Amino acid sequence: MSSRDIVDDTISVPVSSETMNALRDVMAVGNFPSANEAIAAAVRVWQGDNASENRLQSIRQRITASLQDPRPDLTITEVDDALDALMDEAMRVGGRATG
User: Fold this and answer.
1) Using an 8 Å Cβ cutoff, are 18 and 26 in contact?
2) What is the pLDDT of residues 6-60, one digit of tens each?
3) Nearest to 50 by CA among 12, 13, 6, 58
4) Between the CA of residue 79 and those of 1, 4, 64, 74, 96, what are the distances in Å?
5) pTM above the 0.85 mark?
6) For residues 74 and 82, is the Cβ–Cβ distance under 8 A?
7) How far apart are the C-alpha atoms of 71 and 86, rounded to whole Å?
8) Are 38 and 26 in contact (CB under 8 A)?
């Protein structure tokens, strides 16, 4: 989306006095030049929180699936061998190990 695609809409949203005071406070100390920018920043944080929560939910689902996997557990040797193979592949493709 380019800056030309952005349309500024105006809405009226009732907020509690506590929220209004917090908004005034962040503007008074210079954190944000306007209520619009403060609210936009809050929305970005909220979106980030949602993305983080979605990622955590995905991780939880993978853990649950792993715990319910009927296959036998790997031995430490099998895990080490698999990790070594992954590192060898990373070195081959990328030229250096990361981590």
Assistant:
1) no
2) 667 888 989 999 999 999 999 999 999 999 999 999 999 999 888 999 999 999 9
3) 58
4) 44, 52, 19, 6, 21
5) no
6) yes
7) 21
8) yes
